Amino acid sequence: MDIILIPGAWLDASAWDDIVPTLEAAGHTTHPVTLPGKELADADRSGIGLADHVDAVVALVDALEGKVVLVGHSAGGAIAYAVTDRRPDRIARVVYVDAGPLGEGGVVNDEVPVVNGDVPLPDWSQFDEPDLVDLTDELRAQFRARSIPEPRGVFFDPQHLTDDRRRDVPSTIIASEYYSEKYDSPSAMYQDFLDQGAPWVAELATLRDYEFVDLPTGHWPMFTRPADLAQAILKAVDRT
């Protein structure tokens, strides 16, 4: 199976370096993606928006044969979902890594600080504590050293979707964070918000085939629990 690995904000294809060997050892072909404007820290990101990142992944899907699996972390989940909307007949499964589908008109995050037209990795104090679980000082230093500013448009541009068939594509949500002691697992938090009809899971509620997999840690399991994340992705692919 061809597996396209879409990184989240501030990351390039190297975010998946600890995940790729497990998937390839199982016989899959991986395609970790470096999205437009993220080739270098000083690359020109002016004018690059969410649609450009979606177009780049759609082009990769079109260059491959047969069905593919999309794996999207964080903001990469919004990109994966838009690609599914564009090519619903080509996507065998979407695996959301601490992410979920972003609905029509939604934005990734319009509260991030913009600096000279880009969105650099913020200070750690700007993140919620659950984001940072298991992200040690060493991992934080490594992450910051490899981080690449995100194009502003990726955060602020509205999502555009047109094809209802996207909702039929099987989806796996690898749930990592949870924000209250009243939940005994990340997926329990998701389910509670689904039951409440919370806006941030409204699009997820429209999917016709989805499952949760718990992987309790912070927002970056590819750094904090890479072996477990690789196995979780592998099992999702194997169920496809």
Automatic annotation (TrEMBL):
MF annotations from Gene Ontology: hydrolase activity
InterPro entries given in the database record: AB_hydrolase_1 (IPR000073), AB_hydrolase_fold (IPR029058), Sec-Metab_Biosynth_Hydrolase (IPR052897)
Domain AB hydrolase-1 positions: 3-232
SUPFAM superfamilies: alpha/beta-Hydrolases
Record key words, sorted: Hydrolase
Hydrolase recorded as keyword: yes
Protein name, UniProt field: Alpha/beta hydrolase
Species this chain originates from: Antribacter soli
